[in-house]
Amino acid sequence: MTSLRDVAERAQVAISTVSAALNGTRPVAAETKRRIELAAAELGYRPNLLARGLVSKRTRILALLYPTPHSGFGLTEMQFATGAAEAAGEQGYHLLLSPENADPVEELRYLTGLGLIDGVLLMEVRLDDERTEFLMEAGIPFSMIGRTRNPEAISYADIDFTQTAQNAVAHVAALGHRKLAFFNHSPDAYSAQYGPTIRTGEEFAAATRRAGVEYVGDFCADSAEEGREAFDRLVAEHPDVTALAVISDPAAVGVIAAAAARGWRIPQDLTLILVLSSARVAEMFHPRLTTLEPPSGELGRLGARMLIDRLQADGDDPPQQRLVPCRLVVGDSSGPPPAPGERDDRTIDRTGT
Amino acid sequence: MTSLRDVAERAQVAISTVSAALNGTRPVAAETKRRIELAAAELGYRPNLLARGLVSKRTRILALLYPTPHSGFGLTEMQFATGAAEAAGEQGYHLLLSPENADPVEELRYLTGLGLIDGVLLMEVRLDDERTEFLMEAGIPFSMIGRTRNPEAISYADIDFTQTAQNAVAHVAALGHRKLAFFNHSPDAYSAQYGPTIRTGEEFAAATRRAGVEYVGDFCADSAEEGREAFDRLVAEHPDVTALAVISDPAAVGVIAAAAARGWRIPQDLTLILVLSSARVAEMFHPRLTTLEPPSGELGRLGARMLIDRLQADGDDPPQQRLVPCRLVVGDSSGPPPAPGERDDRTIDRTGT
DNA sequence: TTGAAAGCGCTAACAG
DNA sequence: CTGTTAGCGCTTTCAA
């Protein structure tokens, strides 16, 4: 490992001069600088981050904290991580992957006590998240992918649920639908605190109201079986529903099966859209589902960038907050609603076809 | 940030004694040790990793290198990463996520030059991988998830393709199938060098041979469209095929559509299995596909553990090499083959049903 | 414009 | 058994 000293010797200058020349921290004569740069290049010099960090207190390492997620990791989470890693890399930062154990705050205390990281990127943020309180109190720079209930003072990048719901409703309304149902996650201990679950539900309600579209929002389903059941109940209670948005991929599988069992075709008899799911998943379905794809990679990038900005800004400028809507990817599951009464006669049992 | 010095002062001993007591690097009187530990606990002391690393040359940080993958990141890759991060965490190590840019070797040279990391975990290893050569020459400890063509001297964790293919063939043969087709990735510039693509193909060929099952291996498909075409050609050329294994998820979508268009039911008329795909993906299909699920998380864990073992072992013990077969998850797409001639008559065009 | 020197927090000889 | 000392490689005063 070649060090500053080696370079200094080769260029016949003092160590501090080399440091200055390479970092531009103070003026260095052009000729001297040239010699130094040459020497450094010849020796393949790389600054030692540990030494630098030890004195400067800045390591250019960010930690990405993620709870071992409740329902296994999806593409979405991966894209947060890779997006963040990329953005960090572009700015000369590194990303440390930190799985959280049972006690996230303890984990954070440990991690930040190491002196290894400059800041923290929080994933899977809940409406009330104890991690944010710890970080605020400890004065550790951080930003969130997602947001708490009251994120005023904190930088975050999150999905623009308002706009997303509005786009979805507009899409459906433009096709002529007058009544939309939404299958949310079931409000278990986790979802009850999980932003996307809560916010999507609320915003769908609001967006349909604004658009004058009738709304059915009190169903939930997380598995194929639940999707199937919910769908059957939905049709029983609301036979005039023509459009359905589903947040859980497995639930959509059940819905499709239940619809088929009823003899309903998609999209002729039912418009089905997937919410917060990647287009890659939507393509696994037949027909290819219309989907509202979360901008995961971008959120990761934004989160990292905000954090880095905050680290670079010596003073404390106001927190950055960015909301990005999902991308509406129209598949083959969106269509105009059936004419009234048109589909009721097709209740043949096709099981086994 | 409380330092060793603070602890030393509070416990009324020398700094080196504190270090020794806390690390057990040399005998310390029980009473002294107790005092030191108390002081450390009271002050909430955490060793500074940078300082420690600077002198000990060991940071307990591993880098996970991943090329920006050719077809977007899948669940599989994420699971490598999280598995590795977990295993690392358990051993007191940290995982740095390092996206590779255009020039992976240059990236590696930079990364390792930083003095920040103790070792490297390689993902997406190709049969000839220039990164391994660099690392070997540079003497940097590393291990691979996947393996090169001749990985003799290197530690790795990879899928046991032989066993995986054998299990798949056994499954199909036990159901009574006598002829199996396999749709591989198309041999583009990437796949031509990519281990799983090559090895899965080879091992399917070998396993069918051993099992006395007829084999069709010269088809490939990476998209739904290609899957559809390949399937039509397959049936034209081999009307007696009753079982099909597909490596690409989107291709399976095409196969299912093409089969349905032909009036073939799954599994009655065709047994379809997904190779190297997660059960979560397989569940998106209808019927739920039988799948050979790669042990991604475990491979990540193993890779990390091997690397750490190698770092801990001062001497150089032989490289560890582990092969883990995919898990066969039987879904609703496996069944006995149709009786000869049984399905030929159903070639009604059902498009629009 | 440059050099010398101090010190970041820690480990590892070496004395005592 | 414990304290003193010398660095690890770097940044950063402070003098020259």
Terminal residue distance of chain A: 70 Å
**CATH H level, superfamily name of the largest domain in chain A:** Response regulator
Q: What is the overall pLDDT average of chain A?
A: 91
Strand-residue fraction of chain A? 15-25%
Structural class based on helices, strands and sheet pairing of chain A = alpha/beta
- By CATH, the architecture of the largest domain in chain A is named 3-Layer(aba) Sandwich
Number of strands of chain A: 12
Q: Report the C-alpha radius of gyration of chain A, rounded.
A: 26 Å
CATH class of the largest domain in chain A: Alpha Beta
Helix/strand layout:
Two copies of one chain form a homodimer.
Chain A: H1 4-11, H2 15-23, H3 30-43, H4 49-56, E1 61-67, H5 75-90, E2 94-100, H6 104-113, E3 119-122, H7 130-138, E4 142-145, E5 155-159, H8 161-174, E6 179-184, H9 195-211, E7 214-220, H10 224-237, E8 243-246, H11 249-261, E9 271-275, H12 279-282, E10 290-293, H13 296-312, E11 321-324, E12 327-329
Parallel strand pairs in A: 1-2, 1-3, 3-4, 4-5, 5-11, 6-7, 6-8, 8-9, 9-10
Antiparallel strand pairs in A: 10-12
Helix pairs in contact in A: 1-2, 1-3, 5-13, 6-7, 8-9, 10-11
The structure holds a DNA duplex (16 and 16 nucleotides).
Biased composition (Basic and acidic residues) (chains A, B): 341-353
Domain HTH lacI-type (chains A, B): 2-56
InterPro entries (chains A, B): HTH_LacI, LacI/GalR-like_sensor, Lambda_DNA-bd_dom_sf, Peripla_BP_I
